[in-house]
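Reviewer comment 2.1 asked that we show a complete input and output for one of the modelled complexes. We chose the flavin-adenine dinucleotide case, as it is the one discussed in the main text.
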Amino acid sequence: MTWELTEEHLDFRETCRAFTDRKVRPLVDGAEAAGTFPAELWKELGAAGLLGLVTPADHGGAEGDALAVALLAEELSRASGGIAVTVLVSAYMAGPHFVRSGTPEQQGRWLGPLAAGEGVAAIAVTEPGTGSDVAAITSTARRTPDGWVLDGRKMFITNAGLADVLVVAARSGGPRHGGITLFLVERDTPGLSFGRPLAKMGWHSSDTREVVLDGVEIPADAVLGAEGRGFHQIMEGFQLERVALAAMGLGHAAECLDLARAYVRDREAFGAPLAHLQTIRHRIAAMEIGLEAARLVTYQSAARLDAGHPEAAASVARAKYLAAVTANRIVDDAVQLFGGAGFVEESPVARHYRDARILRIGGGTDEIQLEILSRGMES
Ligand SMILES: Cc1cc2nc3c(=O)[nH]c(=O)nc-3n(C[C@H](O)[C@H](O)[C@H](O)COP(=O)(O)OP(=O)(O)OC[C@H]3O[C@@H](n4cnc5c(N)ncnc54)[C@H](O)[C@@H]3O)c2cc1C
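Response of the prediction step:
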């Protein structure tokens, strides 16, 4: 057993940190103000190998692991939740479905471009009427002589306005879990349209929209994976997605801890720096304990996922819950330590505070993680 990252993962974290400092941080304020992802970053991310961590080498990927995805998520989120989630959804929430379930043709068409930053992907599961209860989706897939016709609405879809291809969940027949299939829908398909970008509390530089499926005709080979297996594919995809979201929480928390440490050394009150007050120092120490605990559980969940550990799903649910809740507490503590300066919209701690909140909701809420962990107790 070891509690430390390997040299390889430490080096990779340095690569992610250096990339974030050099390429991402200078773009954050502009992206937040414009409410858009800086498109020039895609090629840079691709060239740095940061979009293909779970892509097979013969499609231009690095064949890395979930722990590497977690490290990338953490480092990008230190700079910006909105930029991080845009990247993570395309490369590590939608993209892996192509890796796991794509036909050779689907993989040949999409894996290379997604890893190179020449294509963007989204995943559309949530609907206006259902989110947590994935098995209740009502968008339909009707078989035709030439393929399928999709109808319905999808809600809160990250990257909808940017995506070249969407992984869409629809009901192809039968109720609940067994009746769902995943489809690949290309952006310019007639009948596919998008709402306006939703104005959100946080993640200002990410694109989130409603997706409308109005008689969307797709060919028979647009099925991704097996017919009727969509629910299981979505649940499998949630594992890496939740590790990435947990690690985003680590990034927000780590950045706020650094900012708070620097601030309390600088800021004076009652004739001395705030750091001279024991209550302030203890608050910082408690923030650090929370972050380290969440980090260990998150890295463990990633390692277990990589190892195919039998407890991996429980570990992932634990990490998603703990990291999201802990990050929210730490960003709140940071705002408190900054005083009025923490409440000003453009202060970094205010942005991390806004961005961290969604981590308790997206990709499975706190309550759903607790449900996963407590299932079966009643019998
Ligand atoms: C910014 C943003 C980006 C998103 N990106 C995507 C995306 O790219 N693709 C996508 O498909 N979806 C996306 N989502 C949707 C997101 O995954 C859902 O919002 C989330 O899963 C919760 O679903 P819901 O909003 O329908 O809430 P609901 O499921 O209606 O839940 C409402 C409340 O009830 C609670 N609840 C529900 N069921 C239970 C239960 N069994 N036990 C206890 N409590 C329960 C929930 O925890 C929550 O507190 C995004 C959402 C946002 C806000």
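Strands lie at 121-124, 140-143, 147-158, 165-171, 180-186, 192-194, 208-219, 223-224, 268-269, 272-273. We note this here for comparison with the apo prediction described in Section 3.2.
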